[in-house]
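Schema walkthrough. Field components (list of strings):
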Amino acid sequence: MTALDHAFGTDQRLVGGPWGGHHQRTVETTGEDAEPVARLTLGPADEASRERVAFEAGIASGCRHGGVEIRARWDDHVEGVRHGFTHEIVAVHQPDLPPVFDQDHGDVERWWATQCGCGDAVDSLAYHPTGISAVGAVGRAPVTRVDDYVRAHTSLKLMTLSDNLSLTPRRMRLDEVGTHVELEDAGVSLGGQTILRDLTLSVGAAEVLGIAGPNGSGKTTLLRLLATLTAPAKGTGRVLGAALGTPEVYGIRREIGLVGHIPTVVEELTLRENLDHATRLFGGDTARIERALQVVGLAEAADRKVEQSSYGMLRRTEAARLLITRPRLLLLDEAFSGLDVDAQQLIDALITRTTENGGAVVMVSHDAAHLAERAGRVMAISAGRLDLVA
Amino acid sequence: MTFWDQAIEISRVDLRIERRMGDVLRIILPFAVIALLVFPLALGVDLSAITQLGPAVFWAIGVLFGMQVALRQAADDRPERRDLYALLGVDPAARFVGRTMSGSVLMVGFMIVLLVATFVLYSPRLPSGWPGPVILAVLLTSVGMTELGTLAGEVTAGLRSRTVLASLIVAPLAIPLVIGGSQTLESLTRNTSILPWLLLLVATDLALAVAGVALARPLEEASR
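Field assembly_structure (string):
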């Protein structure tokens, strides 16, 4: 049971079509008596995030069984760039109705403005015997420029009110609505030789895409294209809203995490110094370094120099860096090869974390079966061309 | 993180690496001092000639070995590290400035030690009041050499034989710096104005700084 399952007290199960591709899917939310209380059909852009599905199904059903009442308006218009508006949706449940509210809409709006700092953004209120819930959109931003699109995101803050009315976040940021990667007939040439050709690809929020192919098929070049480190020679593409091959990409590179063939570390530094260096350059919180080292199991070995460290340790250092930089697009190039089970689980956790936060993951490997275990969709690349496998 | 925060962080780590590896202190500097020693041996026991040639040998050795100091970062600059910096959001211009800062510290130290060694080995005759102008000239030349080396490293990034190519770029472009530095010493000896030569050094440093900052992004993108 996921955190949101628990929060909503509902049981979601998937019925209907496949997750990937261009099919729609249906999510059925059931209550205690196993009777469907809501059906929600999600479009192709909303890929493979079970928690997100839970959230949306929860919105549709009102989550009445968990005592949490949620109503939300989900306004996504195709206008300008992609989405006309993005919302940060805040759902709050007050189990015991305090006297101050007195079921007065104005009181609740004032409380909302005070507690959430979100002014006039109450979208809906619900009163029921066990309490009151309020849902509103905060940080609503019209999207008129690519930069806005890149910055804007949709997230969920599910909070409960404690007795003293202070808000306690139970879950922060669920998802971003949108397509993280789009390629349209893109091709890449290196040294006059065509490496990738006619690539059309779309990777949505919370999606894990696997790309399998033999050595020399163009996997690494494709990842470099998606990492904005290589520009398309033909066709077009957007990554996190930025057009490939244009200066727009400079602004979104910080949100991309690339784990390449060779662990990227400064060889003359220790593992801890490497993490510190990357964190400082990124502008991250250096106080999180120790915690990150503990999480990846390097707390004891952090003062080893790179030359004294194993391949797995270097991969763990990269994982620690990604824990701090929290990329929205995670690109993995044979990231599991040569790793022990623990380290593989760490990479798995990074994938899960990225998708849980609304990010997307693209992983390439020569091992299609290995990809199928982890990816919602697997494509094959051969001689620079992509085909859907599963 | 601001531009200067990034530049300072890159400079800090570069100096830490030098402290740990000692490329300049343990390898380039001793060889440069040995090269200074070789010249008097080749010239024989003509002490007046040795005294007269001292400043020229200092600049020749300074430029030749200084090039190694200036280009040492380029030799270590792996493509993966450049990609990492790009994905961490490091401004290429900040990287240029940071590397120039750390490189200048090392180059100034290198040139000062070389200057002291020149005085010990050659006993050049200089007028009173020389330390200020000479140290200023050494400082400006060192900064210019480092900027040139960093820029050459960026121009040749991603190319095979980049170290050799970078040296070929640095050597001719270092001529204004060599002329400025050596003529400052010469003017001091002749008791003529050193201002034109110091201005030449300042102008060269500024031009290289502007070029380095302005070209940092295009060169980085072109190197991939």
